[in-house]
Amino acid sequence: MDGGSEAIVVTGTREIGKKARDSIAPLDIVSRKQIAATGQGTLRDALSLILPSLTTPTAGFDAGAMTDTISLRGLNPNETLVLVDGKRRHTTANIYSNPGPQQGSTAPDIDMIPMAAIDHVEVLRDGASAQYGSDAVAGVVNIILKKQARGFHAQNITGITSEGDGYQQGVYLDGGAGLGNRGFVHVSGDFVHQDHTYRSAPDNRTGTYQNNILSQPEQTRESVAINAGYDITDDIQAYAMGTYAHRAAQSYQNYRLASSLRAYPEYQAIYPWGYSPLETLNENDYELKAGVKGVFHGWHWDVSSVYGRDYDDIGLINSVNLSLNRATGRTPTSFDVQGFNNQQWTNDFDFSRKFTFSGWPQSVNVAGGASYRYEGYSVGTGSPDSLYGSGSDALAGTNPGNAGNYSRDVTAGYVDIATTLAKGLQLDLAGRYEHYTDVGNTENGKVSLRYDITKRIALRGTISNGFHAPTLAQKYYSALNISPTAARGLIGAGSPGALANGSSGLKPERSTNAEGGFIVEPIRNLHVTTDVYQINMRDRIMPGGNISGATAINAMEQNGFALPSDIGSWNQSAITANWFANVASTRTQGIDITATYLTRLGPYGRIDWDAAINLNRTRLSHQTTNPLTGAPLLNASAVAYLTTAYPRSKIIFGGRWTHAKWTIGLHEIRWGQTTNQLTYYAPGPNQFSTTHFLEYQNKPKWTTNLDVSYRVTPRWTATIGGNNIFSAYPTRVPDGNRYLGAPQYYMSTSQLGINGGYYYFRVNYDL
């Protein structure tokens, strides 16, 4: 929803002082008041209730469920660039490795930025690789931090789900102070805790609810941010920013029966009723930024350096290593299994100036710059106990053959020219060159036009190309997940096991974007935007190959994975492996419509109405084949992740009535249909088949969000509210397509969440 039309924006333009209403590309501005009004304790979940073009995972598996990512326009999170105050944000080290539309993503985790530090968010719904580089295929999310030199704000949010679980507690504090009369420092901090939710159906093996695989992870996060600026002279300002966050989280794995321990009395004594392994995450994330900017003879210049790092220590508790117990008699129940480190050091020099040329009626804004970025990625080994024999149960430790340190250098240069060709006709040209030491060069361009026919009617359009360079995690990550009767390996694209089965090096994803739309204000206080878009993507990256049985076992053993000793007696279709590859080309088409309207009620206050819709469809236009076998790299299930796992539509509409001390907000959200191809798990000819699937349609769902606020005093405000207050749930998965029967809702999609209703109480204090 386009809000704050008179606000000065910095996203999608290199011009100084550009207003949102004059933006040459579709731009949403989400204020901190809008974020707070959702009652959500995280930025990711708040944005998903405000922006139709933005989606989040329904649930998620394993360690990937403990990292919070966002998607724009039905594309992988890697295709959305995240900036903080216009500077590229470092990415998470925790790859989402499980099958699903988010598979392979290591996008920035926006919830590691304190929500208390955020002033507003600018969301550019347009390809912008020519302006910002890799990842800006679907758009750009630019998080603008608070810079006030005074005041104090405190917020407390307490919430619980309609099932009485998933308790959440969030405390958010921020305040500013002046540095003499020439600068500011603003300090912000969050403390957020959420409990598990439990949404599993009875386990087929026991008929009980002991299997908690379908659940929201438990997590506790502490984060802090310091943002500062100081005017060295009237024309030169120094600035700095730092964020730090720590997260401890845990995610359930499938329940193991007590009968599996009959031959191991030591473990049987510990787990007399069986056990549910829990993957744990101990994460430390920080980013430091320093820069100087100013004006010199009409030139605006900015020199900055940003270093970010994310470290994830992944472990297991409530688990076993039966091989170790059999050999040594020891009984460890907790393991260190994986360690991932991601670092990014970005250095930028940017400049811009407006020129006036004789014979040219309008000024020409010329901008340019250069950038150097270092990217590093490390995979650590598991502890000896997690590696011995078949490894720790549920998630075996990373073996030395799949560990290592990897890095690359990225250099770039860009130029941007903006001017007015004639009265009301804006032109923006951008070009960018980038060189990667591992995947080569990319050249990207963008042409944008906007024509204001009248003060109330404008047309705009953009043509551009873009790219997403394969992440180091996509190139080198590997892992083995073991369930009670199945095993799945994701092996490195350049590893011996992958190369032996037809893998080749990863290339950048490339896109061609076209967008056109109009802005109208047919009557006073009514603002409507409509934008149609098409994104053609080539060489999309996700796991392909899908080998199974003995072939998969051989590939994993070539990579040093230790498999269960009895794996030869398992259903061979339940043993699979794949690797990241450039698997396909797709075409995404859609339309965004937003509308806002203000109704003034005189002595009875005002109502701010808003409505927005995103219609989105992705189709497969080409699929890559295995050079050794000629078989397609994707099966029907993987194709569905690319094309139909994101909502076909998302509609948000409602209003907010404000009068005296009262504010009441009411919004409806319609989540469109998603379609997936489900594996058969019930006994029969198609059990665990990788070629025959059941088409599953997650039907459209309506949810209602309501909040009521009362300003108790000029400084204190209390709010009660709820999201999805009538507790809608996703469409249930057929019984025969649930592994072990427990996951009654499908986790590998991006529609309605699994938790049902969420009700909260919020208190705000402003000084």
Assembly type of the chains comes to single chain
N-to-C span: 29 Å
> How confident overall, as mean pLDDT?
93
What proportion of the residues form beta strands (DSSP E)?
over 45%
Corresponding CATH architecture = Beta Barrel
Using the CA coordinates, give the radius of gyration. Answer: 26 Å
Helix content: under 10%
Could you list the spans in which at least 5 consecutive residues all have pLDDT below 50? Answer: none
Number of domains: 1
Q: So how many helices? A: 10
CATH top level class name: Mainly Beta
CATH topology: Maltoporin, Chain A
Total strands: 33
Main β-sheet description: 22 strands, antiparallel, barrel
Derived structural class:
mainly beta
What is the 3D shape? globular
Can you say what the CATH homologous superfamily is?
A: TonB-dependent receptor, beta-barrel domain
